Amino acid sequence: MTFSQSIHSALVNNYANFSGSASRSEYWWFILFVTLVLIIGGFVIGFVGAVMSLSMAFMFMAFGVMLIALISPMLSVWVRRCHEAGRSTAEAVLVFVIGQCAALATPFGGNLIEFSGIFQILNWSVFGIIALYTLYLSTKKGTTN
Fold first, then answer.
1. In-domain check, residue 34
2. What does the buried/exposed string (b/e) look like for 22-60 if buried means 16 or more CB atoms within 10 Å of the residue's CB?
3. Do the beta carbons of residue 9 and residue 1 sit within 8 Å?
4. DSSP letters of 97-108?
5. What's the CA gap between 91 and 84, in Å, rounded?
6. Cα–Cα distance measured from residue 8 to residue 69, given in angstroms and rounded to the nearest whole number
7. CB 75 within 8 Å of CB 93
8. CA–CA separation, 47 vs 57, rounded Å?
9. Whole-model pTM?
């Protein structure tokens, strides 16, 4: 599957489709697309916000709208990728939610939930384990690739 086919599949054909499967190429091309959209979108929002002297709250809301628009296709392509790797929908959603919550508590994820001491160490441990498990599942050979 090519880059454009992956984007079309995830955003048009399977925006909130949690059944079926997604190939490794579809998953990785779509993750690249999401990463580029968030980086470029964040840069544009920051640049426009600085030029127009917009408040940080407005810029966070604009970035939040981008995230909300992409959360359903990200979750659906992840669930379909897990199906391809032989995992259940419940496991896929649980890994996704735990990973996103752990990411929000890391300084790189925005540090929206602030932990200190042992809780921060536990959070980084959970984040690392989920990241490695996600990498394992997303690279596991499935039935169609």
1. yes
2. bbbebbbbbbebbeeeeeebeeebeeebeeeeeeeeebe
3. yes
4. HHHHHHHHTSGG
5. 13
6. 15
7. yes
8. 15
9. 0.80
User: What angle, rounded to 10 degrees, do the helices at 56-84 and 89-104 form?
Assistant: 150
Measured CA to CA, the distance from residue 23 to residue 37 in angstroms comes to 21
Q: Give the tens place of pLDDT for each residue, 61-84.
A: 888 899 899 999 999 999 999 999
Residue 30 lies in a domain: yes
Paired tokens of 53? 């002297």
Q: Determine the structural domain holding residue 84 and report its residue range.
A: 3-139
The number of folded domains in the chain is 1
What region does 53 belong to: left with phi over 0, alpha with psi -120 to 50, or beta? left
- Token pair of 100, please? 């996103």
Chain segment 29-73, per-residue pLDDT in tens: 999 999 999 999 989 988 888 888 888 788 888 888 998 999 999
Q: How far apart are CA 57 and CA 38, in angstroms?
A: 17
Residue 124 backbone dihedrals phi, psi, to 5 degrees: -65, -35
Distance CA 51, CA 49 (A): 6
